[in-house]
What does this fold into?
Amino acid sequence: MTRPTAIQISDVSKRFVIRKEKSLKERVVNFGRSNLHKEDFWALRDVSIDIESGTTVGLIGPNGSGKSTLLKMIGGIVQPTTGSVRLRGRLAALLELGAGFHPDLTGRENVYLNASILGLTRAEIARHFDAIVDFSGIERFIDTQVKFYSSGMYVRLAFAVAIHVDPDILLVDEVLAVGDEPFQRKCLERIRGFQHEGRTIVMVTHSLDQVAEFCDRAVVLEAGRVAADGLPRDALKILRADFEATRQEEITKSQLSEGAARPLAQITGVALRSDDGETGRPTLAVGSGLTVAMQVDATTRLTDWILGVGLTTPMGTTLYQTNTKLMGVPPAPLLGTGRYEFHLADLPLGEGDYAVQASIQLLDGTDVHLVPEAAVFSVRGDGSSLGPLSVPITFAMV
Amino acid sequence: MTDMIEARAAELADQPLRLASPQTGFVSGTLQSVRDIVAHRELLRLLVARELKARYKDSSLGFIWSLIRPLVMLLIYYIALGKFLGAARGIPSFAIFIYAGLTAWTLHSEIVALGTASIVGNSGLIKKVYLPREVFPLSVVGSSLFNFGMQFVILMAATIVAHKIPTGSRWLFFPLSLAVLVVWALAIALLLSAVNVYLRDVGYLVEIALQVFFWASPIVYAWKYVLNEVGGTIYETLYLANPMTLVTMGFQKTFWVRGDGQPYPDRLGLRLGIVLMIGLVLLWLCQRVFARLQANFAQEL
It folds into this structure.
């Protein structure tokens, strides 16, 4: 059965006018020339996204890319300049926890107020009240004014209220990183529960691991436009490459501005070779070794430097990382081209694709060059296990 | 579990797509706005309770403070105007006369002043959650009416003490005046609260305007003095065009039993009725302007 569209965003653009005047006096003084004191800023440009019901979509992108604006638009808080956002079903937004809390009221009064703001009726709140208090874990303080709460307690209560709303569409903005670890786990569990119940979830987050873990789909926004839209894995790859490009740019810029104070060096090539002699994009057997060859070009003299190597999953999670400093083998100062080789023996990797990371750092910690996905290789196993780790395993009845 | 997903999907498939934020025409959106507010009446009640509870939460006298202020004002006007300037000589039951007007005026100024600030004051909520934003000025009306109720009790007590309890048909003026007062105050509060988001100067302007209109209504002086000065001129018409003038006199007509022999404008009831009709049209217009302006609240705050 095809699922109905829960959220339909068609050709949405949003223009913010940045005015530099606010008071009546300034407006009168600048009357007629007021266009000089205006600046247009397009937070979103021609964004079209259709979201099916029951999917979990992650909105990701660098700061200022329009993620939160888009989320607010879905929530009806901000109206699009052109285009339209259409919805099906009841909507709840967890944009800021405890936005409706009044510091002078008690926890109990605030639960009622906040739940009502999120759209629950009085009867529904009364029914869920015990569950809310129970979830928050602050029964003892429920009749205390919330201004005496610690920030953790405040957020716990707010989150407890928010997740007891029964929405068809849930908007989440960076609120999952609250509370201590057990509480966070409880929250994430609850989000999973929401997914199983077929609710549509749209979340804005900077935690890319969360996107990889929870989302069925990820949308990358860049400067108000959709840069990528698809499986989280592909979207994350694009975003990470993007972040890397920005970072590299910054490094180069600071290298240029600092002149000769920092050495200019680059990893110009990374090649893989399996123990069987396969090169290019080798396929390894479980437990075999891999040689990583790197070529470094230093245009200024490179001293006190570190060469690093790492293994990551395609999602970008680091599995293994080391460098010449940790290994206790400092490379000699370099000017011109140098070739180096790491040999990783008996890799205990499970079946799947992996990427090799390469980096140059200085001993004082400054990054010189980093290539997050310098080369890729695959491991082929016998299909007896899942996950990136391979463990010799037996089973017996004892 | 898949059943749940399918069930929800099937349920959603039956619903039409709706716009995320109301974007309706100037006239056609009225019904939508009203329906939206009615759907949030629960929240409105809680917001009123919040305002009342939070206002005097940490003071030991609590609500009594909201009574002390008008009583002190009454005392000041009674002594300074009534005794020193001699206004009490021409006005029987001067205290009840002033208090009837003050009660009306306090309600009016509270709705207008607090209502104007209500949108900016709740910016935290407005930026984060979608609600019909009219609930904020409306909640001010609710909490102000509660305070008004307490003052009303005092006013009644005063008439009992003075052995001049208002009875009979004079009570007709009370609901009529109160309706005019609330409708006009709410209309002004709606308009100004929205404009205040874009122009913060409005808050200061309101303060001054309220001062002017306080003295432009026959609250601490009697209508007959105005009549003596400007009776029959254009100024009399102007003076009577102020809805609060009529509301004040409507209150006096109800509660100021000793003032029965005093002059009142002709057909006060009819005048109040006309002003109420105008007020209702104004309220509708102000709500429509509010609905227009509220589209950009979240980004302007």
